[in-house]
Amino acid sequence: MIKEEDPLTYQIIGIAYYVKRVAGPGLWEAAYDKCLCIALRNRGFKVRPQAPLFLEFEGERLMGYRCDLIVNDEVIVEVKCVDAIVDEHKRQVLNYLHLAKLERGLILNFQEPKLVNGIRRVSTKAHILSKLMKHERESIIDDFANESGN
Prior knowledge:
5 helices; alpha+beta
């Protein structure tokens, strides 16, 4: 069960449901972002809104990014109000996770009529596993092709 596997993201998602229900539909992303921040803080979570993230290369800071929220210094939360979550949003959170040296992220799309359809969990571990599995599949296909003489 998700709750047992990751209680922190489970709690964040529960609070996001509360925010959506109380604040209502049709707001801008910034409004949901602020409401979520307030709700999390009022429940004892440490929240860093618009947390700065920096790309460092050979000891120098090259550029900065800002993620919507970092909760308890463990989870990056990106708040969206878009028609659909796309791969670009997932890559954005993966980049933020890499820069922050964190493993877990959430994308919460408040534009979805049912928030359950607008929640995506993002994990650097899952991303690495996915890449390894893809490489393994390609390797198996290559081995099969070589054995078949194709």
